[in-house]
Amino acid sequence: MKRSIAIVGVLAVFSSFLIQPANAAYTVKPKVGQCFMLTSSDVSAAYARKNPVKCSSTHNAETFVVTKWPLKTKPELMDEEEALNLAESLCRAWGDNGLIDNGFFTYWAWYTPDPAAWAKGERWLRCDAMVRNDANKYLSWKGVKLGSSLGI
Asked: Which of 2, 52, 58, 102 has the maximum number of C-beta atoms within 10 A of its C-beta?
């Protein structure tokens, strides 16, 4: 009897992995240093859609800033240019005080909580560094983090 209960338990855990959708929602708290394997549609999505991957595995984005969205207004309710300017000022990707000073990284994107997380009071802003080539493809790398030999 104990053996059949253990098998049922293992099957339940295993099946939970099988039925999760490929684009599961972002369910973790953002942290600097998280790595992601994003598609073009993930990069341009209004909200974070994928959980991080191990940085030792292939990835094409890494979080370089996590901060608080300073306004009560949801970014999607703001003028698009105004929201981008605010995100850019908080991410500080390039410029005089920019955090990304390595020519390897050519693109950055920003994300805020999805509507459900926003309704629960989450107000984070996550800024990710990427490499986008001339063909607008996001290049990936493996095992190298921003603070390592690539440096920021």
From this structure: 52
Q: Is residue 6 part of a domain?
A: no
Position 22 in a domain: no
**How many separate domains does the chain show?**
1
The answer to whether residue 9 is domain-embedded is no
Token look-up 């493996």 returns: 142
Q: In terms of Cα–Cα distance, which of 27, 24, 37, 38 is closest to 122? A: 27
Alpha-carbon distance of 37 to 62, in angstroms, equals: 9
Write the CB contacts of 88 (distance below 8 Å, at least 6 apart in sequence): 110
Quote the pTM value.
0.75
User: Is-contact 139 131, C-beta < 8 A?
Assistant: yes
Looking at residue 71, the DSSP 8-state letter turns out to be S
Q: What pLDDT digit, counting tens, does each position of 33-53 carry?
A: 999 999 999 999 888 899 999
33 within 8 A of 62, measured Cβ to Cβ? yes
